[in-house]
Structure formats: structure tokens, C-alpha cells
Design goal:
about 15% strand, 6-stranded mixed sheet
Amino acid sequence: MPYGPLKLIAGPAFRLYCRPRVTGLEHLPATGPALLASNHLGTIDPIILPALMPRRVTFVAKSEYFADGKLTGKLLRALGQLPVERRASSAATAALDAALDVLRAGEVFGIYPEGTRSPDGRLYRGKVGVGWLALASGAPVIPVGMIGSDKVLPRGSVLPRPVRVEIRLGAPVPVSGDPSSPKDRRAATDQIMDAIAALTGQERVAGYAPTEKRS
């Protein structure tokens, strides 16, 4: 199904089923590039967020979500999301290059700075790719807090549950610096993670989230 018709169906369906509360949409520019940097709680996050935003949002998602004809993969493709092989050595570079192309085209790109879903609901350290992307693109960085999305489709579940979801968009994060500087990339990333934490109230973890497959 093409993106437009799918969104016309998916948006109202999520609103009816999950009764979402979306706040801070005034922070998302009506036109031009924007980088949505969100926490990541559930598998369904890259479907819910684009479906409820007034503008098209492109994410890259791990290729496992697209495998075996899964419904999640079909929805992700229809919503314009891009599969990336996380185990490939060039995956991070390919994902960032794709993101930069989207932003340079004046569109909205979504990214999960943690790099994977939180295994326990806490907010883990952000990877510096988001800092590089923010500095290299110059696009406004809009922090996003997802709340309750991990309960819509818990691990092991096939059908979504009617759980209330909240999406909070914050004011643009003022980052600056040289994208080639490791120090500046880390500083920008930490600023973005601080803004996300302020929206969600999640407990912070100093280390990175584990990426091994979890049951």
C-alpha cells in the first residue's frame, strides 16, 4: 500500500486503539529538514511515531524487522522506512549516509540514539552518530519521548494491545561544533540525550544498551 493511503488508515487506527496523547507538535517545522531523536522502547515505535506525525518521517530499521514477510516489516516498508543490516561492518555508515540524504532533501528523519531498544525501560547512553548527523546536516534536532509504547507489542506478542501511548516532542536542541571532532560529536549527543531524558523521566544508564538478541 502506498504511503499516503496507509497513513490515512494507520493514524486513525492507532488513535482509536492506543488513545495516544501527542504534545509539542509546534516544535516540528512545517517545512524543511528536521531530525527527530527519540528514545526506543518497543518494536512498534518506528510505526507509531511516523503514523502520528503531520509530516512524513523516515527511519532506518534493522533488517530483521523486514524478514520472513512479517506484518511489521510490511508496514515499515509501506511507511517508507529503510532496512539496514545491523551486523554489517558498514551498517552504521550506510545508515548515517542515508539519513543525511533525507535531511539534505528537506525531509524529516527519525533516529534512535541508543541504537537499539531499551531492554529494561531505562535510557541508555547515546551513540555519537546522532551528534555527527546533527552537526553535519545543520537540521533542527527535535527530541522525542515515547512513553508506554513497549506495552503495545511486548516481546513474544503477535497482536498489539490497546495500551495508552504518549509522544512528547521538545524544543529544538541547540547543538554546535565540528562533525569531524569526536569531542564535539559526543557533546552534541549528550545534549540530545539530556533533552530526551527531560521529556521521558527515564532512569539514565551510563553505558550503551546491549545489542544481542533478547527473547
